[in-house]
């Protein structure tokens, strides 16, 4: 249904935003 699809999109956006953020912070520190 639409709710699970929206949750999946949100989860994928959080993951794709989280991984580069961890890479950048580990590069800086």
UniProtKB/TrEMBL annotation:
One of its GO terms (molecular function) is oxidoreductase activity. GO terms for cellular component: membrane. Gene3D superfamilies: Cytochrome Bc1 Complex, Chain C (1.20.810.10). One of its GO terms (biological process) is respiratory electron transport chain. The keyword Kinase does not apply. Pfam families: Cytochrome_B (PF00033). Keywords: Mitochondrion. The keyword Mitochondrion applies. InterPro entries: Cyt_b/b6_N (IPR005797), Cytb/b6-like_sf (IPR027387), Di-haem_cyt_TM (IPR016174). Residues 1-28 form the Cytochrome b/b6 N-terminal region profile domain. This is Cytochrome b. The gene is cytb.
């Amino acid at each position: 249904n639409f709710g699970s699809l929206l949750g999946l999109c949100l989860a994928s956006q959080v993951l794709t935003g989280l991984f580069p953020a961890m890479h950048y912070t580990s590069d800086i520190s």
